């Protein structure tokens, strides 16, 4: 069976933390592919109006462009509405019955997994894979495959703040993504 990792996120914007976690899981579990999956409306996140779905999709495409084992999954953007992972995994399993899916989450999501929509059903149909995150306990009562990876204390929030205040962005996200954000004038970029 083909083994596919799904890294779901808001990606507002995507950053090297996302690349590192995808790469670590790809190698640790010997996956065939990792799909970066931007959500339409995040279930638990405050809406940030600064970027559109199209902006987030384009930034993810720029982020992963050099890496052939990383692809984009647009199923949630196409479905629209609140992107419950349960609905997505039901649809993906139906569309691709020959694939074994691994849903990749960081420590903050591990800590709140019990609050996810239909979580008791969801854990039966998909294997979660966790990466610790500084500032999060990264602990769960559920059966999560934990992958050891370098701790990255980086978030989209920090990057939005750096754009707004004119702080350094070097090494935090690829230059192509930074250039796109400046061209589109997102996050109050100066
Ligand atoms: N530095 C990191 N270490 C571990 N996991 C991470 C890291 N950054 C993001 N993740 C995980 O990647 C997934 C998608 O994250 P998301 O796109 O929301 O980025 P974020 O940096 O958490 O954004 P924000 O700061 O806006 O909350 C989530 O499962 C999140 O836990
Ligand atoms: O289905 C849920 O109830 C649920 C609750 C919180 C987060 N998620 C998913 O987890 C992924 C990371 O979420 P976020 O908010 O960190 O971008 C993303 O794919 C979300 O759709 C899903």
Automatic annotation (TrEMBL):
Pathway(s) the chain acts in: Cofactor biosynthesis; NAD(+) biosynthesis; deamido-NAD(+) from nicotinate D-ribonucleotide: step 1/1
Any matching Pfam family: CTP_transf_like
UniProt keyword annotation of Nucleotide-binding present: yes
Annotated catalysed reactions: nicotinate beta-D-ribonucleotide + ATP + H(+) = deamido-NAD(+) + diphosphate
Keywords from the named record: ATP-binding, NAD, Nucleotide-binding, Nucleotidyltransferase, Pyridine nucleotide biosynthesis, Transferase
Entry's EC annotation: 2.7.7.18
Domain of life from the UniProt record: Bacteria
Keyword flag Protein biosynthesis: no
Enzyme class: transferase
HAMAP family: NaMN_adenylyltr
NCBIfam families registered for this protein in UniProt: nicotinate (nicotinamide) nucleotide adenylyltransferase (TIGR00482), PRK00071.1-3 (NF000840), PRK00071.1-4 (NF000841)
Protein family per UniProt: Belongs to the NadD family.
Role, per record: Catalyzes the reversible adenylation of nicotinate mononucleotide (NaMN) to nicotinic acid adenine dinucleotide (NaAD).
Protein name per the record: Probable nicotinate-nucleotide adenylyltransferase
